Amino acid sequence: MTRTLSWKLVIDSADPHAQAGFWAGALGYLVEDNSALVEQLLAAGAVPEASTTHAHGRRAWRDLAAARHPDDPYDENSGTGLGRRLLFQRVPEPKTVKNRLHIDVHTPPGERDTEAERLVGLGARILRAVDEQGGSWLVLADPEGNEFCVN
Questions:
Q1: Which Pfam families does the record cross-reference, listed alphabetically (predicted)?
Q2: pTM higher than the cut 0.90
């Protein structure tokens, strides 16, 4: 019997809220709203104020932020996505080497360059164009320097 497991992609970052905002805008996702859970735990004294912040116009976890697909289910009590989801966690060390894993953003035919410019407007930068026998694509970096491809 084959079973299906749920998953999320966790990405280390210096500013998880900025990264969640960038990737939500890039992919048409939503920044998760965990404010109800955060407020509930604060009121119960279960978490310290220092573990929270205000981001995207609401109370949030200081060191975690996520972007989720708008059509996927989510837990109404916590705001946590239960489907396609990118979770950004704050880490103290900066990115220093090339990613071992990256996101490919697929565009409709003929729209690659337009989409790349839109992503630049959100804070990405174009690193290089690749043109190989198997195809062509652009390599970009998100606001924290994580490489991703647009094809």
A1: Glyoxalase_6
A2: yes
